Q: What sequence folds into this?
């Protein structure tokens, strides 16, 4: 076998083995950065209803302030779930970020579009904030009614 064929055969054999050798240049590798997800915090919440002359109906409103150390864009949703005194689920509402304060979430609804009655005083409202990892915080408030 000629020298050229021997080199070609050895090159092909080394490529076929799939073995790759790395040389350590003395630098240590840095660990990959880790992401820390912080649970959102519902700082305060309020709910209630009032009479609106323009619409000739009661308006139900829900408001909260939610902090997330990953930033307000980490929040995926804030909801108000309404229960009666017996723990029965009555209705649920999505809240929306207010502009210019992204930590404040608010929503209001005409009573005729809900299952709520402003003259009933036995509701409790769970305000729940979810983040992108589906971690959450919640508080329960008694809404202001007539």
A:
């Amino acid at each position: 076998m000629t020298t050229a064929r021997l080199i070609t055969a050895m090159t092909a054999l080394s490529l076929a083995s799939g073995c790759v050798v790395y040389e350590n240049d003395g630098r240590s590798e840095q660990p990959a950065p880790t992401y820390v997800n912080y649970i959102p915090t519902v700082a305060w919440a309020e709910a209630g209803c009032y009479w609106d002359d323009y619409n000739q109906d009661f308006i139900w409103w829900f408001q909260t302030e939610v902090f997330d150390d990953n930033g307000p864009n980490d929040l995926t949703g804030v909801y108000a779930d309404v229960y009666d005194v017996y723990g029965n689920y009555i209705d649920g509402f999505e809240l929306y970020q207010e502009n210019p304060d992204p930590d404040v979430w608010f929503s209001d609804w005409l009573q005729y579009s809900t299952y709520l009655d402003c003259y009933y005083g036995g509701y409790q409202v769970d305000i729940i904030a979810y983040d992108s990892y589906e971690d959450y915080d919640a508080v329960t408030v008694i809404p202001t009614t007539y």
